[in-house]
Amino acid sequence: MIDINLVAERQRERRSRERLARVALFAAMFFFVLTVVAATGMLTKIGGKRGAISKAQADIRTWQDKKAQLDAVKEEIARLEPQVKLLNQARFSELRWCRVLADLHKALPAHVTLTGVRSSDTLRPRVRDVGSKTAGEGGEGLTISGEALQQDLVGLFITKLGQQEGFDQVYLSYTRAQRQADREVYQFELIAMLTPLQGGAAR
Question: Which residue, 73, 152, 156, 180, is most buried by CB atoms nearer than 10 A?
Answer without folding.
Answer: 156
